[in-house]
UniProtKB/TrEMBL annotation:
Binding site for substrate: R36, Q37, A38, G39, R40, D85, Y160, S215, H329
Name of the protein: Uroporphyrinogen decarboxylase
Spans through the membrane: none
Enzyme class: lyase
E.C. code: 4.1.1.37
PANTHER family hit by this protein: METHYLTETRAHYDROFOLATE:HOMOCYSTEINE METHYLTRANSFERASE RELATED, UROPORPHYRINOGEN DECARBOXYLASE
InterPro entries referenced in this protein's UniProt entry, alphabetically: UROD/MetE-like_sf, Uroporphyrinogen_deCO2ase_HemE, Uroporphyrinogen_deCOase
Amino acid sequence: MLPPTHPLTDGRTAASPFVRAVRGERPAVTPVWFMRQAGRSLPEYRASRAGVDMLDACLTPELAAEITLQPIRRHGVDAAILFSDIVVPVLLAGVDVRIVPGRGPVLDAPIRTASDVLKLRPIDPDALAPIAEAVRLTVAELGSTPLIAFGGAPFTLASYLVEGGPSKDQLRARSLMYADPHAWAALLNWCADVTGAFLRTQVEAGASAAQLFDSWIGSLSRRDYQRRVAPHSRRAFDALRGLDVPKLHFGVGSGEVLDLLPGLGADAVGIDWRLPLDEASARLGGGVPLQGNIDPALLSAPWSVLQAHVEDVLDRGLAAPAHIANLGHGVPPETDPEVLTRIVELVHARL
Ligand SMILES: Cc1c2[nH]c(c1CCC(=O)O)Cc1[nH]c(c(CCC(=O)O)c1C)Cc1[nH]c(c(CCC(=O)O)c1C)Cc1[nH]c(c(C)c1CCC(=O)O)C2
């Protein structure tokens, strides 16, 4: 149960277009936000981050709250997402991980064997205090705009841990799945538990929705996803048990496994740019709210081309019970932020 002072319970965010759409209602105006909206496309972000390491910024509550609020002030988007990273709970559980600019999360000592997995320790709930504080500071400023809690899905996290960094097709991670199925299952359970604790901390501190990011899901066969990954994603959502918070599940390249996602605990599903929303909705049986689908590659196209694309996405989104406009993946760092503001205005102007 969420406390009576939680933004969802006290009515601050429950009636927001974003929360209503995730729950499957169709508000008068389509809500819109952008994955990775807090980031390098914004000059104010670059100024806030000058000389501060990425993970240090995530663990400094005042700074994390300020960066979270920047895209709300600038673009007028319908939801905020906590400025943090999927590897933050991994770091807080004691794993030596850093973020290399232009590359992503890197581990000098990757987790590759059963004995490496056995050394992983559960996360100490006290270690998550800076995250809870960042959420409280953010929510105090947001008013009726909901904050989205997020976490990395177990397979995406495990891929970074096993590979030691970003990889093209997650070959080492997918090999471990077969070389040592027991170590694999233990590793994915550990990932589900750290991500679950991260999500639960954000929701209890005041977030009004939760999204699981399954960025590498597209490298898996349907069979492997179903048998060796999906149960662990369900376990991550299960960490939110008892909290009546709307949940989203987003995967990149998830077309082959799309129909499996709603069964894992999410209310709404995020779609990348590969599959049109009417086709995605048909694959899901027509009853699942959808998010996303604007191709990030078109952000640098002439406005008339981008506008036609956004309008097509909105039209096809009518096939689902509700649609939250968003990109099909994160904002590229070189994006002109004024283009994002213009998309928000376009989405909000369409009735
Ligand atoms: C795979 C993944 C990561 N992180 C994340 C994912 C899942 C979504 C996806 O597929 O993009 C999720 C994430 N990372 C970040 C957020 C913040 C909230 C938001 O969306 O605005 C979120 C939701 C901040 C960040 N996370 C990161 C940055 C950039 C850090 C910097 O400014 O140097 C930000 C703002 C770093 C990061 N962290 C990660 C990558 C690939 C990178 C980019 C590295 C680079 O190109 O420099 C891992």
